[in-house]
Amino acid sequence: MREAALGPMRELRDLTHETVTLQIPDGQHRMILIERIDSPQPVRTFERLGATSPMPVTSAGLALLALLPEAEAERVLREPLPRLTARTVVDPQLIRSAIGGIRATGFAVNTGQNRPGVCAVGAAVLDAAGTPVAGLGVSMPESRFDPEQVPRWGAQVRAAAAAVTAALTD
């Protein structure tokens, strides 16, 4: 997974000038950060490799959750979510409502739900069967997050995730 993702991750970092992350599910409804390509900017986001977060609070995790089979997504949403920040969405119904939009656009947005002052846009990576197996995200300090740029970032992260999917399925 990491080898397939490194090229598209570097390209996404070069396009956005922001940190790019790769996360995989840990089987416990959490996402594990397995790779990170840092932003070249002096002020950037940082998360250590191996860090875990509940699936519904990261953009990559939400993008993956939106593409899981309904029963599996419901198992994730039945588990209580910790309030990690003042913006963490802990209501499963609100997350369910967001999933439709994520499916329609192909990407998810996180505006400080996982870590204060950190925003991200993420998309799912699929295996050959079309099952979501990872999430790719572009992460930035809230000071550089511009809602008007979300469609552009979403298209870029979606394209990078599709490139990883293609590399995995070749």
Could you outline the blueprint of secondary structure elements for this entry?
Blueprint: H1 2-16, E1 19-25, E2 30-37, E3 52-54, H2 59-67, H3 70-78, H4 92-105, E4 108-111, E5 118-126, E6 132-141, H5 150-169
Antiparallel strand pairs: 1-2, 1-6, 2-3, 4-5, 5-6
Task: Count helical runs.
Answer: 5
Number of DSSP strands? 6
Order of helices and strands: HEEEHHHEEEH
Helix content: 25-40%
Task: Describe the 3D structure.
The chain is α+β, with helices and mostly antiparallel strands and 170 residues long. The protein has 5 helices and 6 strands; from the N terminus they run H-E-E-E-H-H-H-E-E-E-H. It has helices at residues 2-16, 59-67, 70-78, 92-105, 150-169; strands spanning 19-25, 30-37, 52-54, 108-111, 118-126, 132-141. Strand 5 and strand 6 (132-141) form a beta hairpin. The chain starts with a helix and ends with a helix.
Question: Characteristics of this structure?
Answer:
170 residues, 6-stranded antiparallel beta sheet, globular, alpha+beta
Q: What would you say about this model in short?
A:
The protein is an alpha+beta fold. 39% of the residues lie in helices and 24% in strands.
